[in-house]
Amino acid sequence: xxxxxxxxxxxxxxxxxxxxxxxxxxxxxxxxxxxxxxxxxxxxxxxxxxxxxxxxxxxxxxxxxxxxxxxxxxxxxxxxxxxxxxxxxxxxxxxxxxxxxxxxxxxxxxxxxxxxxxxxxxxxxxxxxxxxxxxxxxxxxxxxxxxxxxxxxxxxxxxxxxxxxxxxxxxxxxxxxxxxxxxxxxxxxxxxxxxxxxxxxxxxxxxxxxxxxxxxxxxxxxxxxxxxxxxxxxxxxxxxxxxxxxxxxxxxxxxxxxxxxxxxxxxxxxxxxxxxxxxxxxxxxxxxxxxxxxxxxxxxxxxxxxxxxxxxxxxxxxxxxxxxxxxxxxxxxxxxxxxxxxxxxxxxxxxxxxxxxxxxxxxxxxxxxxxxxxxxxxxxxxxxxxxxxxxxxxxxxxxxxxxxxxxxxxxxxxxxxxxxxxxxxxxxxxxxxxxxxxxxxxxxxxxxxxxxxxxxxxxxxxxxxxxxxxxxxxxxxxxxxxxxxxxxxxxxxxxxxxxxxxxxxxxxxxxxxxxxxxxxxxxxxxxxxxxxxxxxxxxxxxxxxxxxxxxxxxxxxxxxxxxxxxxxxxxxxxxxxxxxxxxxxxxxxxxxxxxxxxxxxxxxxxxxxxxxxxxxxxxxxxxxxxxxxxxxxxxxxxxxxxxxxxxxxxxxxxxxxxxxxxxxxxxxxxxxxxxxxxxxxxxxxxxxxxxxxxxxxxxxxxxxxxxxxxxxxxxxxxxxxxxxxxxxxxxxxxxxxxxxxxxxxxxxxxxxxxxxxxxxxxxxxxxxxxxxxxxxxxxxxxxxxxxxxxxxxxxxxxxxxxxxxxxxxxxxxxxxxxxxxxxxxxxxxxxxxxxxxxxxxxxxxxxxxxxxxxxxxxxxxxxxxxxxxxxxxxxxxxxxxxxxxxxxxxxxxxxxxxxxxxxxxxxxxxxxxxxxxxxxxxxxxxxxxxxxxxxxxxxxxxxxxxxxxxxxxxxxxxxxxxxxxxxxxxxxxxxxxxxxxxxxxxxxxxxxx
Length: 993
What we know:
The chain is α/β, with parallel strands linked by helices. Helix content is about 40%, strand content about 10%. The protein is built from 43 helices and 24 strands. A five-stranded antiparallel β-sheet has the order 5-6-10-8-9. Strand 8 (about 170-180) and strand 9 (about 185-190) form a beta hairpin. The longest helix is centred in the N-terminal third of the chain and has 23 residues, at about 205-225.
């Protein structure tokens, strides 16, 4: 039997295993440090280094991989989306990741209401496919955009609607299994005594297994009936009671939630349910969470689809982060979101009203409302979803960890358990935001454990042990949906009697006698305080220091950026990623993560890059520090779009981490050609301004153009940018000299970014007209200025800092006078708002950053009564990634509407060009593929008279080169509207076109 406590590589013929795997598998077999580093972690607190990683292309690859591992006695770790929070999907053997290729939905039977799928099918994809038949797969965990069906089977995933439709185990018809000895068989979900007896007589392993299961039930029948808590969210341990005759001898359900410890799931046939025609959402306010929990049993009598709980601390966290998800809530300190089905919206609302009216006095809320509008409902659900992401940090900004994040009790006991749990938290001096599936008695909380040092881990163990005793005292389960993993397997002996613990071991050995399947989980468990991922004092490159902490990692002590949101601690920044994998979503709102959406490779996800950077800093698997080629390769396709800064629940800032890495990686080394050409674009643009016509003519000559692109490291498929004959700043000064500029109004600073000044001067010229029409006098900073963005994105941080220092010197006196600053290029505006503070932290930079606005944001704040010109047109609007991440688009939406534009704001994510990224040689295909996901097809489909709005130079360039359509800055559209007015002040700056 495999020993989960020992190193796999120390006792394995690694060369022989590699040879056998590579010779029999069509997919990817990886023993390299970079790939192994990617899979050391999942979404848990734990870290275990795998021997190898296999990404199978076919089910046959899975068979070959498992059989090769069995031949060499190497453990197998099945893995889906890697969103396991308890440490279920990591190990020292061979990790087999089914999420990339095994995504086939093989069959949907609307009559039988079943679907047969491969293990890597994404839940949202299955639900989209079944929705065509009015059906859905009911379990809906919050990771629905990236979790796999195989993973859901592994930990018996549930989600918010298990109140109505149960857990994954309740919705499985059959499982296609592969055992560690190479046996393949299918198990079902219900057998009569005669059918089960027939299965025991089957030849070979199938008959042996069913015979052994029958004996196990006979030996432990009494405890299976009396010692396994009878409520839906009892997920901890093995569900051996499912094998009882009165429960249908449900072998498939008994295997759901075994976390890959018994068999490898090759496929599943799942049960589908009918989607309700309409839903209403009742929002009930109570004084506190425990009072809300007390009302749950009475609410369940009204057959709700779900009963979710949130509290005032979650709402406060949303408000602190300026969330756009917030809508008003009824009066209270805690709220229940209760969803009720109906034949139509009116019927659903009436059912919700009847529920509220029928509640006894003790369960009545202090305030309540019923919402039928789907958009309003979505906004309320976003409070729950976005707030849950924010709980990964405390309100004070400290790390908050999983471990005790999903315990469950029978709903009737929830209020009492919550009060005891609050007392437990107070005794241990811990903090966390409690929320969750109140209708099923399941609570979620991340707690501010101090896991980086030994004393903190001792406190973690003490808390976990007392928490386990508390939940057992209330008849509950250590886990209500995430599984036991390494976090809770050791505690199972506190929940179950010794006889059932033995039964769990016997059950595993029935399926996996060699103990190769995910060892150390549930049976023969690993210690809950071992293998902690962020344990700084156990990292090879750290030295323990006296007291509670550890000395800074030398590698990170050279970091250049300020890491202000992490208290100046780059190690803290690298701990941000919790691994829940929102960056692996296939579709949906937001930007993150465009490169993963195209390549589907873990190393190109935000999570994968964060894990690699963490392992680089740790120095055990990735050993060459800032010179790491594995990290450089992973970051090469990062677009620096900043999408993760806003879309990631913990605001991982991969664009900044990439800038830091490139800065360190190329320190005192020759850089790629693109770093010198596009990284220094502002300088080349100024030089071209000396003779712009000649520069343009030269770069348009075919031979010269090809040579220039080759030398500059620019993709051959790209057209080189054109330079304006007259820069905006020169035209602006000439216009002022002629007395045509507006004077006497409140002054506003217009930032002359490189792109507008040298390439699209019509944009700032249009902005001047709009600002003057709104009553302002426009001024420019003195001298040649730049935000430094191109040097930041190519990791030339010393130069970027010098450029930014000059920008601050130019802006600071104006800001001190109280002048606001308007930026027109979103990437430059975001650089002044965000990157400036990372490279030049301090009060002066903070004042400058706080004074910078977009055009729409400025007009909303400083000219709320200004009436924009009417532009009777329809439009498609592309939001620049940096604006999405740093500033937001709400003011632009409002201004577009006020101008009378029928605007659709595309939720297309990144355009794919992203500054230098899409111009750089070797990245064109990825850049184009990102644009082709939605943006470019939508622009091509738009009617010729439809305006295309894109404030970003990169976005406009990608649209022009990908569709032939000219996109406009919002300033240009508004200036066109001014042309239609009977009279208008000012005139175009000379030559600004």
